[in-house]
Amino acid sequence: MNQKPHVAIVGATGAVGVEMIKTLEKRNFPVGKLTLLASARSVGKKMPFRGQDIAVTELTKDSFKGIDIALFSAGGGISKEFAPIAAAAGCVVVDNSSAFRMDESVPLVVPEINASDVKRHKGIIANPNCTTAITLMALYPLHQAFSVKRIFASSYQAVSGTGAKAIEELERQVNQVVSGQTVTKEVYPHQIAFNVLPHVDSFLDSGYTKEEMKMENEGRKIMHHPAFRASVTCVRVPVYRAHSVAVSAEFDRPVTVEAARAVLRKAPGLDVVDAPEKKEYPLPLYAAETYNCQVGRIRMDCAMDNGLCFWVVGDQLLKGAALNAVQIAEVLLK
């Protein structure tokens, strides 16, 4: 791998693409050249990077010649079509969509957990689902110490997980409600302002949604734990940015709050914010735009043996997407 790689961002004008550009700059990633790719309607739009404005060019089959690393965040359809083309051109793809996550030949990576899986790539590496990544930042260190059997979890997912249009929808609806206008909706099936929707992604025959099953399926792959089980309810909440997850986890080995805290304090990419007596606990408002995830409300689960409850919050545009992708690119350079 070229130590000053030519990097491309596919979907450069989307919510995650914008964060990818910022994250490359903030982390001083040694970009030799940056190419921004998007659909025809975004061509010519200029995006700031290291004091320069870089014009967006159109994504085509010929876009990947000479590119070393391509960070994809333009949806599963684009990834399915163009990631194999990019890989065939000698580029390593880090894909943020769900297109390749469960493909056995594609590593699914959270660098703090399974960075060594990157070595097995055949041109494509998958970024996990945002809620899964944020949850595992706290769950995996506990798993290493106490061996997790199963979790019950509920997510509180920000609208930016759906994209820039959803952020606009929440803003618009808040204004409509406050000024007594009729609420209009385009992105979500119901009003999201002053409401919560127990519906993230599409429903499966089981009654779970695809998003809810990602925690179990992707969790097994990332943690190398095929027996891991997760029963999850994913909920969209009227928060602009940062997802929160309430987790009840059951372990094989006895766990105490003190032991769990000691483990979590040492975990990379995670801050323990847990002083309820001072009203200190992770909040999406304060986790937004920060790299580390936060864990708090750590307590024994009173309904399970060897059970622990915790609340974990993270910026899903960063650790759940752009930051994780850039961290994978950093592993590629090592």
Topology:
Blueprint: E1 6-10, H1 15-26, E2 33-38, E3 46-49, E4 52-55, E5 57-58, E6 69-72, H2 76-88, E7 92-95, H3 111-114, E8 124-126, H4 130-146, E9 148-157, H5 164-178, H6 210-223, E10 229-236, E11 243-251, H7 257-266, E12 270-272, H8 284-287, E13 293-300, E14 307-314, H9 318-333
Helix pairs in contact: 1-9, 4-6
What does this structure look like?
The chain is of the alpha/beta class and 334 residues long. It folds into 2 domains: 6-128 and 321-333, NAD(P)-binding Rossmann-like Domain (Rossmann fold), CATH 3.40.50; 132-316, 2-Layer Sandwich (Dihydrodipicolinate Reductase, domain 2), CATH 3.30.360.10. It is built from 9 helices and 14 strands. A 6-stranded parallel β-sheet has the order 5-2-1-6-7-8, sandwiched between helices. It has a 6-stranded mixed β-sheet with strand order 10-9-11-14-13-12. Strands 3-4 form a two-stranded antiparallel sheet. β1, α1 (15-26) and β2 form a beta-alpha-beta unit. α1 (15-26) packs across α9 and α4 crosses α6 (210-223). The longest helix has 17 residues, at 130-146. The chain is globular. The chain starts with 5 loop residues before the first strand and ends with a helix. The relative contact order is 0.15.
